[in-house]
Amino acid sequence: MTSIRVPLTNVYAKGGYTARFYVGAQHHPVNLILDTGSSALVVHDDSYQPGRDSHLTGTTLVQDVQYGKGGWYGPVVQTSIRAGLPYHHVALDDVSIALTSQTQVASFLDADGILGLAYTSLDNAYDLTEFLTTENVNPRETYPYVMQHTAQDVSHYSQFLHRYPKTHVSPYFTRLEESGAIANQFALLTHRSSIYHTQTHQPVEKLLAHHLNHGLFVLGDPLLHRDLYTQPVKTLAVLHDKYYNVHVQSIQVGNGELIPGPVLDDKHVESYCTNGIVDSGASAIVLPQAIFEEMKRQLIACNANFAPLLAHYEAFTGEEVGIDAASLDLSQWPAIHITCLGSNDEAITLTLTPDTYWQVHAPAPGEATFKFCYLPGWPNQIILGLPLLNNYYTIFDRSAGDTGEIHFATKVDIPGHMIQAIHHALQPASKGKTNT
């Protein structure tokens, strides 16, 4: 089996991490957000030229997804995808891809789409065979018909779709593992969940050059890559294979009193399963409001000077809020510990250091932004996003048991020669040109 490293950057998705994939017969380059909180593979139609793709075949399916912020819908096609560098890659034919005909604001930011890395139950589609027959669409396929004849917004078109039979699409990573090309594991090595800025109005090339805006996506057997991590390796139990569902037992500010994990409301158990998920598509740690307020209270109890800094941070707005970094002495801030259920029913504690829950030179040079928030309307569940993953070499092991495990290993700084290779691989691709 192959185990490969794919370069990552957080520049195109404004803090989220994208990997470059090559789609179709022309190996068209697209930068896709890696999201363990969803399962669909979607590419914006402006970023890919399906009409020129001799590998493309149509289907009768349409997908729609609405995220916490943003959403999209579009026809499902099948084509080939290559991941990795030309000399070290994996290729797969007949991959299901949704092509967006509508997107809400900020769904993909400056990326070209999203690659969901969760499980099949989240990769829903609707079979429009009946509709296509009634409309005399020939061939009986949703592409390009849906893109040519539909202009509704996402919420309205979703209501239309829900009249038709629901089915599941096999996600890309599931297909890749089932093909035997790689083991049923992947890992993320990341440093930030906000872009690191050193000067105003930096061009993309300058942002891509900074190693703190780099990362690695390891497909295959991440533990074989011993230059990327050291012991200890802490292992959480994945309790449900819908999201990467975990159980959060408590949060602790420094040596303070434990804040118990939330209790998921009965009405949300079927859809959300547990009181926590590990989500690489989240650029912050999202807490229920009561836990968020208690955490802030305990931080201010540590040091009253924290109060005016934290006053800027409340509910998630979709926009990063910066304070003057000169007012922030990270040496005064405590670590924040999150304890979850381990794979052997033991308590496993993971730690966010101050330089990951406060990120400097973001959203602008000389500023800093706080990476905890709450999300109005979200269930009583914690979203363990990138700020936690940034502290570790995080391995999603789907082969363990019935539902998998997540390993948090001590990450190693990426050596200089690898930084240069990643930087070269991340340079902007010319849209419309063939890459081989």
- Derived from helix and strand composition plus strand pairing, the structural class reads alpha+beta
Radius of gyration over all CA atoms, rounded: 21 Å
Q: Spans with pLDDT under 50 lasting ≥5 residues?
A: 431-436
Give the percentage of residues in beta strands: 35-45%
The CATH superfamily of the largest domain is Acid Proteases
What level of helicity do the residues show? 10-25%
At CATH level 2, the architecture of the largest domain is: Beta Barrel
Number of strands: 29
Number of domains: 2
- Characterize the largest beta sheet: strand count, sense, and whether it forms a barrel: 6 strands, mixed, barrel
Question: What strand line-up does the widest sheet have?
Answer: 2-3-9-4-7-6
CATH topology label of the largest domain:
Cathepsin D, subunit A, domain 1
Mean pLDDT: 91
Coarse morphology:
globular
Helix tally equals: 11
CATH class of the largest domain: Mainly Beta
- Gap from first CA to last CA: 23 Å
Short description:
With 436 residues, this protein is of the alpha+beta class.
Key terms for this structure?
single chain, 436 residues, alpha+beta, Cathepsin D, subunit A, domain 1, 2 domains, 6-stranded mixed barrel, 4-stranded mixed sheet, disordered C terminus
